[in-house]
Amino acid sequence: MREEQESAFKKKVLDQFLSGESLFGKNGALSPMLKEFLEEALQAEMDAHLRDEDTGHSVGNKRNGKGSKRVKSNLGEVEIETPQDRHSSFEPKIVEKRQRILADNLEKQIIGMYGLGSSLRDISEYIKDMYDTEVSTQVISDITDRVVPKVKEWQNRPLEEVYCIVWLDAMHFKVREEGKVRHKALYNVLGINREGKKEVLGMYLSESEGANFWLQVLSDLQHRGVQDILIACTDNLKGFPEAIGSIFPKTEIQLCVVRQIRNSLKYVASKNQKEFAGDLKKIYKAETKDLAESALLDLEEKWGKKYPIVIRSWNDNWERLSAFFAYTPPIRKLIYTTNAVEGFHRQVRKVTKTKGAFTSDMALLKLVYLATQRIEKKWTTPLQNWSLTVQQLAIKFEGRISLDINTET
């Protein structure tokens, strides 16, 4: 008889599994197991509650029958018996009073949807459609707040001693504060470690982008263990290179050439932009720094009288714009623009683009953190041809980066 029951049970499990039916839902083959687990857990909680005489409530307290309730989770719906006590002081944790949905079971799903940019209202409606159960946006907000300690831990985690290349850039968002919408700058630092893998080193929120705040960012990186950065790629924010040099004096600065081009063309008449851009290309696409400087002289001779401010900007920043010429083409491609961090920003924007204004700083940080965690999961392999690249960097920056090369004797 028992063998027949076991056989029938296995067949039911297999049939439901193959048909795609919920094994834990109504009439699910495994639903009794979920019911048994929850009821045993509630009984254990009641036992502990009755043993606890320090609360002042349980003295003389006893069991007082059972109630029943239906609860829903991502495993399906189940009806369970809930123990009751005479003083009605029992506050279960695994299935709380008046709780009709096991929110903890849905925590991963809720946080996942939130991390993809879904609004609290959208998530609430999804749960309503899937489980026919109301979950308020406040409850969902409370669940997403469980990410906050992880955000803070991630922001303060120790970092490696040396990073080969670091890109620094800011994104801009709107955040509501005290009834007003304020513009905030989110500073992001993207690094390449000695193994050639990308890593977001940190994100920092401020009222606006400026060299003074970047100084605080760089100081924080140092405090968290960074002792050296070989190459830092930045935009041409005033005072930015000096801020880097004050914390990491040996770091080589490479200003973003693409940003310089964009800024230059803003001050060139539309009728001249195509021709001017072509002349600029001869500079940054030159094979050597000498050839690039010759092209820069040609640019000045041709356009200097018409666009003196633009030409002066190139001359004044030339040493930091041209640092990439000291490297081979693969490294040049990596460092002459901030495309790496801008690519990261584009992926973050896919998640944040639906948000008009965030309700708080932490609401913004939670979402960007979750997006970052998802993006970083794809960064599992070193950059292409990194073994050759890191050897060139080790030669260029002798004594500042060590390579783990095992030699046989």
From TrEMBL:
Residues 63-72 have a biased composition (Basic residues). Keywords: DNA recombination, DNA-binding, Transposable element, Transposition. It holds the Pfam family Transposase_mut. Residues 49-73 are annotated as: Disordered. Coiled coil: none annotated. It comes from the Bacteria. Required for the transposition of the insertion element. Belongs to the transposase mutator family. This is Mutator family transposase. It comes from Echinicola rosea.
